[in-house]
Amino acid sequence: MPSIRPHPDFTSLRELPDSYAWNHQPDSDYPSSADAESVPIIDLTDPNAVQAIGHACKTWGVFQVINHGVPTHLFHMVESTSRDLFSLPVNQKLKAARSPDGVSGYGFARISSFFSKLMWSEGFTIVGSPQEHFRQLWPHNYISHCDVIKEYKREMKKLAGRLMCLMLGSLGITAEQDIKWAGPKADFKEASAAVQLNYYPACPDPDRAMGLAAHTDSTLLTVLYQNKTSGLQVLREGVGWIRVPPVAEALVINIGDLMHILSNGCFPSVLHRAMVNRTCHRLSIAYLYGPSSSVKISPHPKLVGPSQPPLYRPVTWKEYLDTKAKHFNKALSWVRAELVSL
Ligand SMILES: C=C1C[C@]23C[C@H]1CC[C@H]2[C@@]12CCC[C@@](C)(C(=O)O1)[C@H]2[C@@H]3C(=O)O
Ligand SMILES: O=C(O)CCC(=O)C(=O)O
Ligand SMILES: [Fe+2]
Protein backbone atom coordinates (compact mmCIF):
# COMPACT_ATOMS: atom_id res chain seq x y z
CA MET A 1 0.00 0.00 0.00
CA PRO A 2 1.44 3.40 -0.85
CA SER A 3 2.25 5.36 2.26
CA ILE A 4 1.13 8.95 2.71
CA ARG A 5 4.16 11.17 2.40
CA PRO A 6 4.49 12.92 5.75
CA HIS A 7 4.57 16.66 5.63
CA PRO A 8 8.05 17.92 6.56
CA ASP A 9 8.62 20.16 9.50
CA PHE A 10 9.06 23.51 7.75
CA THR A 11 10.61 25.19 10.74
CA SER A 12 13.70 23.01 10.50
CA LEU A 13 14.52 23.90 6.87
CA ARG A 14 17.24 26.53 6.35
CA GLU A 15 17.37 26.21 2.58
CA LEU A 16 14.70 25.59 -0.01
CA PRO A 17 14.85 21.93 -1.03
CA ASP A 18 14.67 21.33 -4.78
CA SER A 19 11.28 19.68 -4.36
CA TYR A 20 9.92 23.12 -3.34
CA ALA A 21 11.69 25.20 -6.02
CA TRP A 22 9.24 26.38 -8.66
CA ASN A 23 10.48 27.63 -11.99
CA HIS A 24 8.55 30.83 -11.94
CA GLN A 25 10.21 34.15 -12.47
CA PRO A 26 8.76 36.51 -9.98
CA ASP A 27 9.98 39.63 -11.80
CA SER A 28 8.22 38.92 -15.05
CA ASP A 29 5.21 37.78 -13.05
CA TYR A 30 5.14 41.12 -11.33
CA PRO A 31 4.94 43.97 -13.82
CA SER A 32 5.56 47.11 -11.83
CA SER A 33 2.51 48.73 -13.43
CA ALA A 34 0.40 46.08 -11.77
CA ASP A 35 0.25 47.91 -8.50
CA ALA A 36 -1.26 50.93 -10.21
CA GLU A 37 -4.56 49.10 -10.05
CA SER A 38 -6.01 47.69 -6.91
CA VAL A 39 -8.84 45.41 -5.95
CA PRO A 40 -11.98 47.39 -5.01
CA ILE A 41 -12.82 47.87 -1.35
CA ILE A 42 -16.56 48.01 -0.77
CA ASP A 43 -18.36 49.28 2.31
CA LEU A 44 -21.37 47.03 2.85
CA THR A 45 -23.24 49.83 4.60
CA ASP A 46 -22.92 52.06 1.53
CA PRO A 47 -26.31 52.50 -0.20
CA ASN A 48 -24.54 51.98 -3.54
CA ALA A 49 -23.01 48.68 -2.48
CA VAL A 50 -25.08 46.66 -4.99
CA GLN A 51 -23.75 48.58 -8.00
CA ALA A 52 -20.20 48.55 -6.65
CA ILE A 53 -20.38 44.79 -6.09
CA GLY A 54 -21.85 44.19 -9.55
CA HIS A 55 -19.06 46.18 -11.14
CA ALA A 56 -16.36 44.45 -9.10
CA CYS A 57 -17.76 40.99 -9.92
CA LYS A 58 -17.89 41.72 -13.66
CA THR A 59 -14.49 43.34 -13.97
CA TRP A 60 -12.37 41.84 -11.19
CA GLY A 61 -13.98 38.68 -9.82
CA VAL A 62 -12.70 39.75 -6.42
CA PHE A 63 -13.19 42.59 -3.94
CA GLN A 64 -12.70 43.34 -0.28
CA VAL A 65 -15.57 44.20 2.05
CA ILE A 66 -15.52 46.41 5.12
CA ASN A 67 -18.30 47.05 7.62
CA HIS A 68 -19.47 43.48 7.04
CA GLY A 69 -20.78 43.08 10.58
CA VAL A 70 -18.75 40.01 11.57
CA PRO A 71 -17.47 40.60 15.13
CA THR A 72 -13.71 41.17 15.24
CA HIS A 73 -13.14 38.85 18.20
CA LEU A 74 -14.19 35.93 16.02
CA PHE A 75 -11.21 36.48 13.71
CA HIS A 76 -8.89 36.54 16.70
CA MET A 77 -10.40 33.31 17.94
CA VAL A 78 -10.23 31.46 14.65
CA GLU A 79 -6.70 32.74 14.15
CA SER A 80 -5.75 31.42 17.54
CA THR A 81 -7.28 28.00 16.80
CA SER A 82 -5.34 27.90 13.50
CA ARG A 83 -2.10 28.82 15.25
CA ASP A 84 -2.64 26.17 17.92
CA LEU A 85 -3.27 23.64 15.20
CA PHE A 86 -0.33 24.39 12.91
CA SER A 87 2.13 24.73 15.77
CA LEU A 88 1.49 21.17 16.95
CA PRO A 89 4.32 18.69 16.33
CA VAL A 90 4.12 17.12 12.84
CA ASN A 91 3.33 13.68 14.24
CA GLN A 92 0.43 15.08 16.17
CA LYS A 93 -0.95 16.88 13.11
CA LEU A 94 -0.65 13.71 11.07
CA LYS A 95 -3.11 12.05 13.45
CA ALA A 96 -5.70 14.20 11.72
CA ALA A 97 -4.28 13.70 8.22
CA ARG A 98 -6.72 13.81 5.35
CA SER A 99 -7.20 10.30 4.03
CA PRO A 100 -6.31 9.78 0.34
CA ASP A 101 -9.94 9.79 -0.76
CA GLY A 102 -11.22 12.11 1.98
CA VAL A 103 -11.86 15.84 2.02
CA SER A 104 -11.48 16.81 5.69
CA GLY A 105 -8.26 16.93 7.62
CA TYR A 106 -4.66 18.04 7.62
CA GLY A 107 -2.32 18.00 4.62
CA PHE A 108 -1.21 19.62 1.40
CA ALA A 109 -3.82 21.45 -0.68
CA ARG A 110 -5.95 19.11 -2.74
CA ILE A 111 -4.60 20.60 -5.96
CA SER A 112 -1.04 19.50 -5.07
CA SER A 113 -1.41 16.38 -7.17
CA PHE A 114 -1.43 18.49 -10.35
CA PHE A 115 2.05 19.86 -9.73
CA SER A 116 5.46 18.23 -9.66
CA LYS A 117 6.74 20.72 -7.06
CA LEU A 118 5.56 21.00 -3.48
CA MET A 119 3.82 24.06 -2.10
CA TRP A 120 5.21 25.94 0.88
CA SER A 121 2.07 25.60 2.95
CA GLU A 122 0.00 23.40 5.17
CA GLY A 123 -3.76 23.20 5.18
CA PHE A 124 -6.57 21.90 7.28
CA THR A 125 -9.93 21.34 5.60
CA ILE A 126 -13.14 21.23 7.60
CA VAL A 127 -16.31 19.85 6.05
CA GLY A 128 -19.13 19.27 8.52
CA SER A 129 -18.05 19.00 12.13
CA PRO A 130 -14.31 19.06 12.91
CA GLN A 131 -14.94 17.15 16.14
CA GLU A 132 -13.39 13.79 15.20
CA HIS A 133 -10.20 15.35 13.88
CA PHE A 134 -9.96 17.95 16.65
CA ARG A 135 -10.31 15.22 19.24
CA GLN A 136 -7.22 13.54 17.78
CA LEU A 137 -5.30 16.81 17.87
CA TRP A 138 -6.35 18.07 21.28
CA PRO A 139 -7.79 15.19 23.34
CA HIS A 140 -8.41 17.48 26.33
CA ASN A 141 -9.61 20.76 24.90
CA TYR A 142 -11.06 20.07 21.49
CA ILE A 143 -14.50 21.36 22.47
CA SER A 144 -13.54 25.02 22.67
CA HIS A 145 -11.85 24.79 19.25
CA CYS A 146 -14.96 23.12 17.81
CA ASP A 147 -17.08 25.93 19.22
CA VAL A 148 -14.91 28.55 17.53
CA ILE A 149 -15.33 26.86 14.15
CA LYS A 150 -19.08 26.47 14.68
CA GLU A 151 -19.47 30.16 15.49
CA TYR A 152 -17.24 31.18 12.59
CA LYS A 153 -19.29 29.10 10.17
CA ARG A 154 -22.51 30.61 11.46
CA GLU A 155 -21.32 34.17 10.94
CA MET A 156 -19.78 33.41 7.55
CA LYS A 157 -22.97 31.74 6.38
CA LYS A 158 -24.97 34.84 7.22
CA LEU A 159 -22.50 37.07 5.40
CA ALA A 160 -22.30 34.77 2.37
CA GLY A 161 -26.12 34.77 2.08
CA ARG A 162 -26.14 38.56 2.14
CA LEU A 163 -23.42 38.70 -0.49
CA MET A 164 -25.37 36.28 -2.70
CA CYS A 165 -28.38 38.61 -2.58
CA LEU A 166 -26.24 41.64 -3.39
CA MET A 167 -24.37 39.97 -6.24
CA LEU A 168 -27.48 38.48 -7.81
CA GLY A 169 -29.38 41.71 -7.18
CA SER A 170 -26.85 43.56 -9.32
CA LEU A 171 -27.80 41.23 -12.19
CA GLY A 172 -31.51 41.90 -11.74
CA ILE A 173 -32.08 38.57 -10.00
CA THR A 174 -34.11 38.65 -6.78
CA ALA A 175 -33.23 35.75 -4.51
CA GLU A 176 -36.80 35.57 -3.07
CA GLN A 177 -38.50 35.21 -6.42
CA ASP A 178 -35.89 33.95 -8.82
CA ILE A 179 -33.82 31.43 -6.86
CA LYS A 180 -35.90 28.60 -5.41
CA TRP A 181 -33.02 27.09 -3.47
CA ALA A 182 -32.48 30.39 -1.62
CA GLY A 183 -35.41 29.30 0.58
CA PRO A 184 -38.56 31.22 1.64
CA LYS A 185 -36.59 33.90 3.49
CA ALA A 186 -33.99 34.17 0.72
CA ASP A 187 -31.33 33.53 3.34
CA PHE A 188 -29.76 30.53 1.57
CA LYS A 189 -30.35 28.54 4.74
CA GLU A 190 -29.63 25.19 3.07
CA ALA A 191 -26.30 26.28 1.64
CA SER A 192 -23.22 24.30 2.56
CA ALA A 193 -19.59 25.18 3.00
CA ALA A 194 -16.07 24.07 3.79
CA VAL A 195 -13.58 25.93 5.94
CA GLN A 196 -9.95 25.84 4.87
CA LEU A 197 -7.25 26.92 7.31
CA ASN A 198 -4.04 27.77 5.45
CA TYR A 199 -0.64 28.25 7.01
CA TYR A 200 2.39 29.54 5.10
CA PRO A 201 5.54 29.36 7.22
CA ALA A 202 8.31 31.94 6.70
CA CYS A 203 10.42 30.69 3.80
CA PRO A 204 14.22 30.90 3.31
CA ASP A 205 13.86 31.52 -0.46
CA PRO A 206 10.44 33.05 -1.10
CA ASP A 207 11.13 34.08 -4.71
CA ARG A 208 11.48 30.48 -5.80
CA ALA A 209 8.73 29.04 -3.61
CA MET A 210 4.97 28.90 -4.08
CA GLY A 211 2.52 29.05 -1.18
CA LEU A 212 -0.58 27.95 -3.06
CA ALA A 213 -0.49 27.55 -6.83
CA ALA A 214 -2.81 29.51 -9.12
CA HIS A 215 -6.37 28.19 -9.04
CA THR A 216 -9.98 29.25 -9.04
CA ASP A 217 -12.25 28.14 -6.23
CA SER A 218 -14.97 25.57 -6.99
CA THR A 219 -17.51 27.64 -5.07
CA LEU A 220 -20.29 30.15 -5.52
CA LEU A 221 -18.15 32.56 -3.55
CA THR A 222 -15.31 32.39 -1.07
CA VAL A 223 -14.88 34.64 1.96
CA LEU A 224 -11.21 34.91 2.85
CA TYR A 225 -9.73 36.26 6.04
CA GLN A 226 -5.97 36.90 5.93
CA ASN A 227 -3.68 37.95 8.76
CA LYS A 228 -1.40 40.98 8.47
CA THR A 229 1.14 39.28 6.18
CA SER A 230 0.53 39.85 2.47
CA GLY A 231 0.77 37.06 -0.09
CA LEU A 232 -2.52 36.77 -1.95
CA GLN A 233 -2.43 37.75 -5.62
CA VAL A 234 -5.12 37.73 -8.29
CA LEU A 235 -4.61 37.56 -12.04
CA ARG A 236 -5.91 40.59 -13.89
CA GLU A 237 -6.40 39.93 -17.61
CA GLY A 238 -3.84 41.85 -19.65
CA VAL A 239 -2.16 43.31 -16.56
CA GLY A 240 -0.65 40.52 -14.52
CA TRP A 241 -0.63 39.40 -10.92
CA ILE A 242 -1.98 41.99 -8.53
CA ARG A 243 -1.44 41.91 -4.81
CA VAL A 244 -4.46 41.89 -2.54
CA PRO A 245 -3.06 43.63 0.53
CA PRO A 246 -4.42 42.84 3.97
CA VAL A 247 -6.73 45.67 5.02
CA ALA A 248 -7.64 45.89 8.71
CA GLU A 249 -11.08 44.39 9.40
CA ALA A 250 -11.65 43.62 5.70
CA LEU A 251 -12.56 40.29 4.13
CA VAL A 252 -11.64 39.25 0.60
CA ILE A 253 -14.53 37.94 -1.51
CA ASN A 254 -13.71 35.75 -4.53
CA ILE A 255 -16.04 34.70 -7.28
CA GLY A 256 -15.91 30.91 -7.67
CA ASP A 257 -16.64 28.65 -10.62
CA LEU A 258 -20.24 27.90 -9.60
CA MET A 259 -21.08 31.62 -9.60
CA HIS A 260 -19.38 31.81 -12.99
CA ILE A 261 -21.81 29.12 -14.19
CA LEU A 262 -24.88 30.58 -12.43
CA SER A 263 -24.18 34.03 -13.91
CA ASN A 264 -23.62 32.45 -17.36
CA GLY A 265 -20.13 33.91 -17.44
CA CYS A 266 -21.14 37.46 -16.38
CA PHE A 267 -19.15 37.06 -13.17
CA PRO A 268 -15.98 35.20 -14.12
CA SER A 269 -14.24 33.23 -11.41
CA VAL A 270 -10.88 34.70 -10.51
CA LEU A 271 -7.50 32.99 -10.75
CA HIS A 272 -5.52 33.55 -7.57
CA ARG A 273 -2.46 32.26 -5.76
CA ALA A 274 -0.59 32.77 -2.50
CA MET A 275 3.08 33.74 -2.32
CA VAL A 276 5.27 33.37 0.76
CA ASN A 277 7.44 35.62 2.86
CA ARG A 278 11.05 35.44 4.09
CA THR A 279 10.47 36.61 7.62
CA CYS A 280 6.79 36.38 8.44
CA HIS A 281 4.51 33.42 8.41
CA ARG A 282 1.06 33.92 6.99
CA LEU A 283 -2.35 32.57 7.95
CA SER A 284 -5.51 32.63 5.91
CA ILE A 285 -8.95 31.21 6.52
CA ALA A 286 -11.15 30.52 3.54
CA TYR A 287 -14.88 29.96 3.83
CA LEU A 288 -15.76 28.05 0.67
CA TYR A 289 -19.45 28.53 0.06
CA GLY A 290 -21.69 26.51 -2.21
CA PRO A 291 -25.24 25.20 -2.62
CA SER A 292 -26.70 22.25 -0.74
CA SER A 293 -25.93 18.87 -2.24
CA SER A 294 -29.25 18.41 -4.06
CA VAL A 295 -29.10 21.70 -5.99
CA LYS A 296 -28.08 21.77 -9.64
CA ILE A 297 -26.41 25.03 -10.60
CA SER A 298 -27.01 26.20 -14.15
CA PRO A 299 -27.01 29.55 -15.95
CA HIS A 300 -29.92 31.55 -14.52
CA PRO A 301 -32.90 31.79 -16.93
CA LYS A 302 -32.90 35.57 -16.54
CA LEU A 303 -29.41 35.68 -18.04
CA VAL A 304 -30.22 33.37 -20.92
CA GLY A 305 -32.00 34.33 -24.13
CA PRO A 306 -31.80 34.03 -27.91
CA SER A 307 -28.66 36.13 -28.01
CA GLN A 308 -27.19 34.62 -24.84
CA PRO A 309 -27.34 30.84 -24.96
CA PRO A 310 -26.56 28.96 -21.74
CA LEU A 311 -22.84 28.33 -21.75
CA TYR A 312 -22.74 25.58 -19.13
CA ARG A 313 -24.70 22.46 -18.34
CA PRO A 314 -26.34 22.04 -14.90
CA VAL A 315 -24.05 20.58 -12.23
CA THR A 316 -24.29 19.83 -8.52
CA TRP A 317 -21.44 20.97 -6.28
CA LYS A 318 -20.27 17.39 -5.91
CA GLU A 319 -20.25 16.79 -9.67
CA TYR A 320 -18.27 19.95 -10.12
CA LEU A 321 -15.73 19.01 -7.44
CA ASP A 322 -15.29 15.63 -9.12
CA THR A 323 -14.69 17.36 -12.45
CA LYS A 324 -12.22 19.68 -10.76
CA ALA A 325 -10.40 16.75 -9.17
CA LYS A 326 -9.92 15.28 -12.66
CA HIS A 327 -9.37 18.35 -14.81
CA PHE A 328 -8.28 21.07 -12.34
CA ASN A 329 -8.14 24.49 -14.03
CA LYS A 330 -9.86 23.10 -17.15
CA ALA A 331 -12.95 22.02 -15.18
CA LEU A 332 -15.05 25.00 -16.25
CA SER A 333 -14.36 24.50 -19.92
CA TRP A 334 -15.04 20.83 -19.42
CA VAL A 335 -18.53 21.60 -18.14
CA ARG A 336 -18.93 23.94 -21.08
CA ALA A 337 -17.50 21.57 -23.66
CA GLU A 338 -19.87 18.82 -22.57
CA LEU A 339 -22.80 21.05 -23.41
CA VAL A 340 -21.43 21.82 -26.87
CA SER A 341 -20.89 18.14 -27.60
CA LEU A 342 -24.45 17.12 -26.64
C1 LIG B 1 -15.21 22.46 -1.12
C2 LIG B 1 -14.00 22.33 -1.58
C3 LIG B 1 -13.27 23.37 -2.37
C4 LIG B 1 -11.83 22.88 -2.38
C5 LIG B 1 -12.06 21.40 -2.47
C6 LIG B 1 -13.13 21.16 -1.37
C7 LIG B 1 -12.45 21.27 0.00
C8 LIG B 1 -11.13 22.06 -0.05
C9 LIG B 1 -11.14 23.24 -1.03
C10 LIG B 1 -9.75 23.75 -1.40
C11 LIG B 1 -9.16 24.80 -0.45
C12 LIG B 1 -7.77 25.25 -0.95
C13 LIG B 1 -7.75 25.55 -2.45
C14 LIG B 1 -8.48 24.43 -3.23
C15 LIG B 1 -8.34 24.65 -4.73
C16 LIG B 1 -8.00 23.10 -2.73
O1 LIG B 1 -7.05 22.46 -3.15
O2 LIG B 1 -8.81 22.70 -1.66
C17 LIG B 1 -9.92 24.38 -2.77
C18 LIG B 1 -10.90 23.42 -3.47
C19 LIG B 1 -11.63 24.08 -4.64
O3 LIG B 1 -12.11 25.19 -4.54
O4 LIG B 1 -11.66 23.42 -5.70
O1 LIG C 1 -4.10 32.11 1.41
C1 LIG C 1 -4.68 32.76 0.55
O2 LIG C 1 -4.63 33.98 0.47
C2 LIG C 1 -5.46 32.05 -0.53
C3 LIG C 1 -6.16 30.82 -0.02
C4 LIG C 1 -7.02 30.21 -1.08
O3 LIG C 1 -7.00 30.62 -2.21
C5 LIG C 1 -7.93 29.10 -0.73
O4 LIG C 1 -7.90 28.60 0.41
O5 LIG C 1 -8.70 28.70 -1.63
FE1 LIG D 1 -8.63 29.82 -3.38
Automatic annotation (TrEMBL):
Which Pfam family, giving just one, matches this sequence? DIOX_N
Q: Which UniProt keywords apply?
A: Iron, Metal-binding, Oxidoreductase
Q: Which PANTHER family match?
A: 2-OXOGLUTARATE (2OG) AND FE(II)-DEPENDENT OXYGENASE SUPERFAMILY PROTEIN-RELATED
Using the record's annotation, list all stretches that form the Fe2OG dioxygenase domain. Answer: 191-291
Q: Which PROSITE patterns match?
A: FE2OG_OXY
Species of provenance: Hibiscus sabdariffa (roselle)
Q: What family classification does the UniProt entry report for this protein?
A: Belongs to the iron/ascorbate-dependent oxidoreductase family.
> What is the name attached to this protein's record?
Fe2OG dioxygenase domain-containing protein
